[in-house]
Amino acid sequence: SDQGNRKYLDGLNPAQLEAVQQLDGPVLMLAGAGTGKTRALMARVAHLITCHRANASQILAVTFTNKAAKEMQVRLQNTPYDMQEPIRWMGTFHSISAKMLRRHAELVGLKSNFTILDTDDQLRLLKQLVAAANIDDKRWPARQLASLIDGWKNRALTPEKLPSADAGAYNNMGGTLYAQYQTRLKELNAVDFGDLLLHMVTIFQDNPDILANYQRWFRYILVDEYQDTNVAQYLWLRLLASAHKNICCVGDDDQSIYGWRGAEVGNILRFEKDFPGAHVVRLEQNYRSTGNILAAASSVIRGNKNRLGKELWTEADMGDKVRLIGHWDGEEEARWIGEEVEAMQRGTRGLAPKSLEDMAILVRASHQMRAFEDRFLTIGLPYRVIGGPRFYERLEIRDAMAYFRLVVSPDDDLAFERIVNTPKRGLGNVAQQKIQTCARANRVSLVEGARILLEEKGIGGKGAKELATLLDGLDRWRKQGTAPIVEVPLDDDAVIDDGATQTAMRLQESAPELNHVELAQVILDESGYTAMWQNDKTPEAPGRLENLKELVKALESFDNLQGFLEHVSLIMDNESEDAEQKISIMTLHAAKGLEFPAVFLPGWEDGLFPSQRSMDESGLKGLEEERRLAYVGITRAEEICTISFAGNRRVFGQWQSQLPSRFIDELSEENVEVLTPPGLYGHGGGSRDFGGSFGQSGLEQSAMRADAYNSPGWKRMQSRAGQYGTSQPKESASSAINLTAESSFMVGERVFHQKFGYGNVLAIEGEKLSVGFDKAGEKKLVARFLSKAND
Ligand code: ATP
Ligand code: MG
């Protein structure tokens, strides 16, 4: 009866079928981008369930990024098979580990409601430890310690296992501070990202019975993006798979892009050694991209010496060539891309109209996103940022979350420190110091310490009164949000698991006084936090209040506050669930495994991409990783791939001349079309027609680069050597500033704002404008969020 039910196998090629149907023992699928690895992996899940090899909860399916995990869920939903229940253990290494760790937290000295710290909290904590150790933070930045500790955790090294060479790092204090940091985390009932895996590995290693349970439970293990696993993840997987060895890993050595975070491409090459007799499947047909895109991607990755080397082919048409365009500066690049996006929405060059969902902008560094965000806000183009600085990292959101965290876990000292005097409660440094001292003396959390301090009258005046109000508030909110346990009469036919009928009464959770959404609002209002921003007269305040509303709204899709907090600490994207179509902006790292009909790859300039660090490094390792990143970027595109670069960029407030990326030179000419940048005329700088010769220079890349611009600054940069000089061409720098000077508004001028609509400028104070909007009334805004209404 299963036979007719195997629609999910339809259309798979023989190699994919092999990977799907080889159910017993280890399987390694090693293949290039877009060859259907993830698709085969999802078909394998369907097959396991259809063949009754495992039920949905006995399959462990892991991938690397949240976005990729979400994509797996979607793919599986689109896989035609008889799905009875969702695959509960499908997610990222981190989210799955967090779920496991909640069950066993006490084994590593934590409580199950532990907090997951983000990098900001982590750094604050480390700074405190560094200060306490009398280490000069200037010479030995805490950030450096943070990255050392991350690195050790990625290598599965607990403080006890740290080799002495490592322990001696950071002015001989590395090992000591690492141990102190771990102790402090336990006191705070908190973990950082690295701990999620490290603690589970420790638990597995120290508790064979627990490990055996999981080994029995997870009958099959599937891993996507295996090339990016680090040592800790590798150990975690190997421990779980070592009994039955039913593990299927898929990956591509050409897409290994997390070396800087401790990923070891060696893991993929070692697979056959670790799992002798592994079934290795290679896929070569690419189903994603057109011929030109695939050929251009292949031409770049061929520049890497350290690779297994595989050639991909496609049955698809050659399609459009990869488009290459140079711009004067980053603003111009963003402006042009905005226009291209709108043109694609309308349907351009004979192509069918595209939805914003079909487009993505993939940047090398997250700071590149700002130019696009600003531009898109101005023209009202809906976008979402995936990864990078995001909604949940905004100040007001972090403050609000600290309140929520403190209500859920009273031991969360970092959250307490963050909000104790926000809004101002007359609890400045002196009062906070007293609380710290009292907490330490009594070996309790700061909340408890504050309570004791109040009882002992160790603090007085306004501060004491306000502190008491805050502590009462925290208690009250916690109660209001907690479901009381009540005794209820038992239904006659109620049975418990073993079949025996219960006695007359049983305990049951009743509904809490407030649901978590109401509770969140109450916390923000009663703590005075909302009022703080309402009374704030800075131009940013209205936006912050909007964000707080958005935060409360976001809670609706969760069951409780704790689930939400966990979600926020784990997510790498802030994708709102609303139905509006949006273009995606994300880093190349976050784009792994995804695909889009149209992809923009901006900022292909030496020093940005490849990164300066990779260029400065001796040896090829860094540069080869950057090149793999370029390969990942190009291979995300299905139909249209547009690469761009800018001649000038503002770096830390300074204009800097840029050279087109060396990877541009490596693109195979026959697969590339060079576009003429039209946008420069829009600035009214008509005399500067350096765009003109651009398209005519043909496909010879270097000549194209040299001819691209007529400005003297550019001419000085024709040779690479020019770039390495310390002085920047002055002409170029100053003309760049002229070109991009903020468009000035005049009082009385008609303007447009994405959210508030049309209005008139009432007053101007430098960058800030007062605008009377037709509908929204008077608002103070920063000029760059406004556009002139008459264009
Ligand atoms: P990446 O390395 O980028 O993660 P991948 O190898 O995981 O790529 P998939 O994302 O699984 O590749 O597949 C790429 C595209 O090709 C998807 O749109 C997928 O649906 C399609 N595809 C995969 N296999 C086939 C097939 N046998 N026939 C038709 N289309 C396929
Ligand atoms: Mg994939």
TrEMBL record:
GO terms for cellular component: cytosol; DNA helicase complex. It is an enzyme of class 5 (isomerase). Its EC number is 5.6.2.4. Residues 10-290 form the UvrD-like helicase ATP-binding domain. GO terms for biological process: recombinational repair; response to radiation. Pfam families: PcrA_UvrD_tudor, UvrD-helicase, UvrD_C. InterPro entries: DExx_box_DNA_helicase_dom_sf (IPR013986), DNA_helicase_UvrD-like_C (IPR014017), DNA_helicase_UvrD/REP (IPR000212), P-loop_NTPase (IPR027417), UvrD-like_ATP-bd (IPR014016). Gene3D superfamilies: 1.10.10.160, P-loop containing nucleotide triphosphate hydrolases (3.40.50.300), PCRA, domain 4 (1.10.486.10). The keyword Nucleotide-binding applies. Residues 291-593 form the UvrD-like helicase C-terminal domain. GO terms for molecular function: 3'-5' DNA helicase activity; ATP binding; ATP hydrolysis activity; DNA binding. Keywords: ATP-binding, DNA-binding, Helicase, Hydrolase, Isomerase, Nucleotide-binding. ATP binds at residues 31-38. It catalyses: ATP + H2O = ADP + phosphate + H(+); Couples ATP hydrolysis with the unwinding of duplex DNA by translocating in the 3'-5' direction. The keyword Protein biosynthesis does not apply. Belongs to the helicase family. UvrD subfamily. Has both ATPase and helicase activities. Unwinds DNA duplexes with 3' to 5' polarity with respect to the bound strand and initiates unwinding most effectively when a single-stranded region is present. Involved in the post-incision events of nucleotide excision repair and methyl-directed mismatch repair. This is DNA 3'-5' helicase. It comes from Shimia marina. The lineage of its organism: Bacteria, Pseudomonadati, Pseudomonadota, Alphaproteobacteria, Rhodobacterales. The gene is pcrA.
